[in-house]
C-alpha cells in the first residue's frame, strides 16, 4: 500500500500548534499614544453661523454635519468635535480660540484625554 503524505491544511486541527492563539494573547511592546477629545462649549453670544464656520474651517466637517454638531452644543451644552493625537488636538484648540478671539466671540474650545 502506498501512503501519500498527509496534507497540511488550515482546517486540519491536528496541525494546529496554537501559535495564533499565543500571538493574540501576547501583549505588544508598543503602546498606542493617548488620544484627546476636542470639545466645543455652548455660550449665549457666539452666533450659530460662526460656530458652523469654525467646524467647517478647522475640522473639515461638511456644513450639514457642522449644523448638527452646533445644534448639539447649543442644546446639550457641549459636544465632542473630534478625537486627535495630543499635538493635533492642541493645535485645533488654539486655532479655534484665536479665531474666536479675533472675531470677539466668547466661544470656548477645550480638550480632554479620552
Ligand atoms: N448658543 C449660541 C446661540 O444661541 C450658539 C452656539 C452654539 C454657541 C454652539 C456656541 O459652541 C457653541 N447663538
UniProtKB/TrEMBL annotation:
Keywords linked to the UniProt accession: Hydrolase, Protease
Gene3D superfamilies attached to this UniProt entry: 3.30.1390.10
Classification via SUPFAM superfamilies: ClpS-like
GO terms, molecular function: peptidase activity
GO BP of this protein: protein catabolic process; proteolysis
Top-level taxon in the UniProt lineage: Bacteria
Short name of one Pfam family: ClpS
PANTHER family on file: ATP-DEPENDENT CLP PROTEASE ADAPTER PROTEIN CLPS, ATP-DEPENDENT CLP PROTEASE ADAPTER PROTEIN CLPS1, CHLOROPLASTIC
Quaternary structure annotation from Swiss-Prot or TrEMBL: Binds to the N-terminal domain of the chaperone ClpA.
Protein name (Swiss-Prot/TrEMBL): ATP-dependent Clp protease adapter protein ClpS
Organism: Pacificibacter marinus
Taxonomic path: Bacteria, Pseudomonadati, Pseudomonadota, Alphaproteobacteria, Rhodobacterales
